[in-house]
Write a structure and sequence with these properties.
The protein is mainly alpha-helical. Helices cover 50% and strands 10% of the residues. The protein contains four helices and three strands.
């Protein structure tokens, strides 16, 4: 089974500033991995919001579910990701934000 390969373009800011900020300053490397994962999924779906569970993100990134939860909390707190649920038990929808582009 062949896996389709595609290129995803990252802003320079993500690698030159955001990585150091999340990993070094916030001590949340999981947040950086989750952000990259959501960025990639968003780009694969024409920059749309991504509907995915913590468990699905854990499987995709190799992180534990609790590490994904911690990463999401950090990203939402830093206003790098917006999270929305239609109901308490619904799978969340995540929108990747790029505040440095303003």
């Amino acid at each position: 089974m062949a896996i389709a390969q595609s290129n995803i373009e990252l802003d320079d800011y993500v690698l030159s500033v955001l990585m150091r900020d999340l990993v070094g300053h916030d001590r949340a490397p999981s947040a950086f991995l989750v952000y990259l994962h959501l960025w990639g999924e968003s780009n694969r779906h024409a920059n749309a919001a991504v509907r995915t569970s913590h468990q699905m993100m854990a499987a995709a990134t190799g992180l534990s579910k609790s590490a994904v939860q911690k990463g999401i909390r950090c990203l939402v707190g830093r206003q790098l990701v917006r999270s929305r649920k239609e109901a308490a038990t619904a799978i969340p929808e995540y929108r990747v934000l790029r505040p440095w582009r303003r």
